[in-house]
Amino acid sequence: MLRSLVLFALAALAEIGGAWLVWQGWREQRGLWWIAAGVVALGCYGFVATFQPDANFGRILAAYGGVFVAGSLGWAMVVDGFRPDRWDVAGAALCLLGVAVIMYAPRGGSA
């Protein structure tokens, strides 16, 4: 489970960071190098998910969606000085609960 959690964190860093770099390059007019760096980071995100121990693409991507929500708020707090309200925090917590259920709930052989 620790490996899976680390991979989710790396995926979030690559995807959120990559999208932020593209945003900075285009919306904040920082230039093509920022955009190019963002595209590379987004490409790295695509590979990180393949290292998850679970072999089900749909499950991995669905669970990652919850990590992305919480990670995006964390990124915004650290990098952009965003202050989430209680509803942002509650929503992120629900998403992370969903990640835990999707990825780490005990499963029998058929379900």
From TrEMBL:
Membrane topology of the entry: Multi-pass membrane protein
Record localization: Cell membrane
Pfam families for the chain: UPF0060
Keywords: Cell membrane, Membrane, Transmembrane, Transmembrane helix
GO cellular component: plasma membrane
Transmembrane segment boundaries: 31-48, 60-77, 89-106
NCBIfam families per record: PRK02237.1
Family label: Belongs to the UPF0060 family.
Protein's name in the database: Small multidrug resistance family-3 protein
Organism phylogeny: Bacteria, Bacillati, Actinomycetota, Actinomycetes, Micromonosporales
